[in-house]
Specification:
The structure is a homodimer of 484-residue chains. Chain A has 484 residues and is an alpha/beta fold. Chain A contains 15 helices and 16 strands. In chain A, the strands form four sheets. Chain A has an eight-stranded mixed beta sheet with strand order 4-11-10-9-8-5-6-7, sandwiched between helices.
Chain lengths: 484, 484
């Protein structure tokens, strides 16, 4: 079936050519402008097609050189996975996170740190109209709270959607939460006690590390691959080396890598979890935001004995400010309901009802199709800009979903310093060290959110980051020479 | 200044007569109907006036006998405070709570268990209209979440209101939470670690015990007096006997007793906390719902060194289903912000904005005045019914605020059995044992919510409870004789 979108048709055509050998490994592809001209396509269409091919690993971008057909065994210029680590560490709240949170609340700052989509890209206005209509029509709405498992209409809407996830569940399999953050908090509280260790991917979303730290848990960081997610061999070693209470993973469009676990890897991860009798806490917030092909199935689809606690929300697809999330906790249903009751009693009725109505409407699927397209294009454009502006030797992830880029700068750049300097000039970024409990890790990395349209203001901000990075790299090199 | 309300005028007049000795201690007051007839007042007005006098301890109700002027040193027929206990206990989730929560979600059950007010009594419809207008006008509302400390408009509205509480604070002293339950969870997480012990009043709201249990904390239960709250001598003993990480208290219209701590007792409690260097977690959810006089100041008003974490919400005065709460955490501000971020990231924007607008409007104060009046009347009518229908020897609290009655049944009645039987007949009550971590305590007690208007359906439900109680007491007495 041919795709609706020109960029998908182009990507498929070029992909075929590579598979057939018509485009040979190591060969340079036409420049974006040249191909656009030749084929009478827009530059954006070509950029997106190349991005799709990068995402699937068929081609790679080399800074200031262009696009090349990849050698099959080569990971190219994506940031390198960390060395493996099986030592349990107690994560700590860092200055980097404190600065990031403070910057969140400053409207004068160019917001490239936190992973928010622009309100125009989301369906916030439509959701607000639904909420307004409900609030006018149902005068008793809000007179009672909806104690766990939460609003039946929301759970029924989720049950219907879970069929399209490939993990069909019933309304009795869900508990409503305050975003995915509360879902993950409850999941961790259900399966681990203070002092226990849990596995996370490395790098991983700093919010997960904060939640783990605040609960007094330890983390074992297992390297993640930029395209395929958590390293199963390293995970196996970790499970053998240390008692592990949970595997916290983001198999679909992981934050910050944008990786997607292949189905056989998900099956293998689940089998490992069964063998070592460990629950899996699956963070699926980017599940609907993969750029190509069918929506990947969550690991929950393989769950036969209820050990997967699937956590999701509408914060990345509809409205972060509604704080509507959920957990499908499998065998931990009763524990999660009790913990939710004791932790925050219930979720607000109005926001839950509005989201339930939106999820049940046909327009939500249309919205998701459009959103994937928009987000893929936006990420591709940011990536182009970064490759064009950042110093030689910069490595940039080729995300297969979500809307963040993971970038490794050349030289001995400390991105915590970069964050501080950029913030002083009105630009927020997320520094690499906050994505690991071991603060020295990822010190030359940063995460950029591509959630805002690439306006001239954003382009100027990217230029600023590039120059600050160049400057810090030069000083780092000089410092290195001086001490040598 | 004469009161606006006839019942307050009548209560003041009778109170004066008692103080002057015109009505002597032990003397019987005219029956409600007789006095209403004599003075050309409604029965409801007289009931409320008597209720006010009971609340202040000047008169007492004796089941099936009527109202009497109290002897000053006598606690009359209010339920007796528990024997003191300074042993740390790990609370457990009981069948009683599980049944109560399940019944919450059944619309066929007469809801006398949970402390909810009727939507007609609350301002839910007005709040919904505000929310609808906001959702229509602000199309970007919900596009970002409001990370801690939360929505500025809400914190500013709370800062303005804190002046009328007698504990003036600024917007920087508040953190928005998902109801008071999340506030208390965060407070406990900030000051205690699993295995630590905290003091609670006995009896206390079962939700607090659940939160404590779920966090792996222990409780030391200190007896509370039905009119004046926590027993300071027993508290002092507890602080000397065991390392205590926090005092969790509800000084204003405590749930379930309806007690109000006198100001000098609050000052003394604060002084004790300073001497033993213990933080105070103050649950103020019923702060606006006292029946007479000025709104009592929270203990926070005495707080000089930031050791009081004041927790509140609009769940008892506006809309439980909005889940809008807050904490004024004093010196723990940074910890609470960080914990809130890690636990649930942020609160919903729409519900917070609507409540902020309502709190800032002049109509909120008018609503509160009306609400206090309505609630006081409703509690008085429920109390009348209980005294008229329940077995001889029943003791009923005379709450000074809030909308629950604490009842002690005569004989060896097990209210967990009573709860089960009543629920089988479609009536939900809250059994006494769930108000203590030591399950055997308060086994003859129950809590009745007076949140619904006293309709014929409710009257029938009260009759049912009375008959079941009578039946259980008779069996208990027979059982006792048989084993003697």
């Amino acid at each position: 079936m041919p795709s609706d979108y020109l960029y998908e048709q182009l990507a498929a055509e070029l992909g075929d050519a590579i598979e057939r050998g018509a485009l040979r490994a190591g060969g340079k592809l036409p420049s974006v402008r040249r191909l656009a001209e030749d084929r009478a396509l827009s530059v954006a269409t070509v950029v997106q097609a190349y991005s799709v091919l990068e995402g699937t690993g068929l081609i790679e971008a080399r800074p200031k050189s262009g696009y090349f057909v990849r050698r099959r065994t080569d990971d190219g210029d994506a940031p390198r996975p960390p060395r493996k680590s099986v030592t349990a560490t107690r994560p700590a709240v860092s200055d980097g996170i404190a600065r990031l949170i403070a910057a969140l609340r400053d409207p004068g700052v160019v917001p490239l740190a936190a992973a928010y989509l622009d309100p125009g890209t989301l369906k916030v206005a439509q959701l607000n109209r639904i909420a307004a209509a409900l609030a006018r029509e149902v005068s008793t709405l809000g007179a009672r709270d909806d104690t766990p498992p939460g609003l039946a209409t929301l759970r029924r809407a989720l049950a219907r959607r879970s069929i399209s996830w490939g993990a069909p569940m019933t309304e009795h399999d869900f508990v409503a939460t305050i975003g995915a953050t509360e879902a993950i908090t409850l999941a961790l509280r259900a399966v681990a006690r203070p002092g226990d260790a849990v596995v996370v991917e490395s790098p991983t979303y700093f919010g997960i590390l904060q939640t783990i730290e605040a609960l007094g848990l330890k983390v074992v960081e297992v390297p993640a691959h930029p395209r395929t997610g958590i390293d199963l061999a390293a995970l196996h070693d970790a499970l053998k080396a240390t008692p592990i209470r949970a595997i916290v993973t983001m198999p679909t469009a992981a934050n910050p890598l944008g990786s997607i676990m292949p189905d056989d890897a998900k099956a293998a991860l689940y089998a490992l979890a069964v063998r070592h009798d460990v629950p899996i806490i699956e963070d699926d917030v980017y599940g609907e935001l993969c750029f190509d092909g069918a929506r990947p199935r969550p690991i929950k689809a393989w769950d036969k004995d209820g050990r997967v606690l699937l956590c999701g929300s509408v914060s990345k697809t509809l409205a972060p400010g509604y704080r509507v999330g959920w957990i499908a906790p499998g065998r931990y249903q009763d524990d999660i309901e009790r913990l939710k009751f004791s932790q925050s009693l219930a979720c607000p009725t109005l926001t839950g009802m509005a989201v339930a109505e939106m999820l049940s409407s046909g327009s939500y699927d249309r919205h998701l199709r459009r959103l994937r397209h928009v987000v893929a294009g936006q990420v591709a454009r940011y990536r182009e800009e970064v490759l064009a502006r950042f110093p030689d030797g910069t490595r940039v992830s080729a995300p297969r979903g979500g809307f963040v880029l993971w970038i490794e700068l050349p030289g001995a750049v400390d991105t915590l310093v970069l964050q501080e300097r950029a913030l002083a000039r009105g630009v927020a970024i997320a520094p690499g060290p906050i994505f690991s409990a071991r603060q020295q890790r990822f010190s030359a990395c940063l995460r950029l959110s591509c959630g805002q349209p690439l306006t001239p203001r954003v382009a100027t901000a990217l230029d600023l980051i590039a120059h600050l990075a160049q400057d810090l790299a030069a000083r780092g090199a000089r410092g290195h020479r001086a001490s040598a």
